[in-house]
Amino acid sequence: MVAMIEQLFGSKTRVKLLKLFYGNPSRAYYVREITRKIDEQINSVRRELSNLLSVGIITSDTTNNKLYYEVNQKYEYYNPLLAIFGGKKDKIASTVNGEENSGAEEEFKSLGHVDLVVFSGQFTRDTSSPVDVLIVGNVNKNAVDKYIAGLEEEEGGKDISYTVMNLDDFNYRNQIRDRFITRVINSKNLVLLDRHGLLKD
User: Fold this and answer.
1) Measured between alpha carbons, how far is 162 from 8 in angstroms, rounded to an integer?
2) Which pLDDT does position 4 carry in this prediction?
3) Of 111, 77, 65, 61, the residue nearest 91 (C-alpha)
4) Which residue from 20, 71, 114, 130 has the highest number of Cβ atoms inside 10 Å of its Cβ?
5) pLDDT confidence of residue 23
6) Which domains, and CATH codes, for the chain?
7) Residues whose CB is less than 8 angstroms from the CB of residue 164 and which lie 6 or more positions away in sequence, other chains included
8) Measuring CA to CA, how many Å separate 90 from each of 21, 59, 68, 115, 125?
C-alpha cells in the first residue's frame, strides 16, 4: 500500500510531507524542523515543498524571519487528500472541524483523567496565547512533566509553557470570561482532546 502511494504521488519525500501536513492540518513547520521530523535530506525537502506550493496544496509565510509551511485547508482537493494522508498523526496532531483524533483519549490516558488538551502559542505561531499547552482534568503532575519533557525533546529542545487545571476551575473561569482562558480560546489553537465539547459553539 505504501509503495503504491509513493508510486502514485511520485516520491517518498512527497508522501512523507503529505502525511506530516495532513496529519497536523493546523500546524506550521519550518524547513529544518520538517527534515528532522520526516528524516529526509534538506535539498529533497526543499524541492518537494516547492512542488506542493506551486500546486496549492500547502501555503507559506514568514514569522520572525523564518519561513513556515502549512497545509492549505482551502485547497480544492483538501478533503480527499485528508482522507488518504490524515490517518497517521504525530504527537502534535490536531482536530479537524472539531472532531478529535481517534486514539486521543488513549494517548493521554497515562496522564490521568484528561478532559481537554489545547496546543497554542509556539505550536501555532500565535504569540497572543499566554501558554503553549493547556491541560484540563484530574492528572498526575509527574506524568504531565514527563509528557511535556517529551514534547520539548520532540520540538528540538524548545521550552514549552503549560498550564494544568481541573474541570471545575476551567468551567468557572470560562463562564466568567477569565482573561487567561479567553486568550487561549481566541488564539489559533489545536484541540487534541475535548471530551465534553467544552470548546464547541
Assistant:
1) 41
2) 54
3) 111
4) 71
5) 85
6) 2-85 (1.10.10.10), 104-194 (no CATH)
7) 135, 136, 137, 139, 141, 144
8) 10, 20, 18, 20, 18
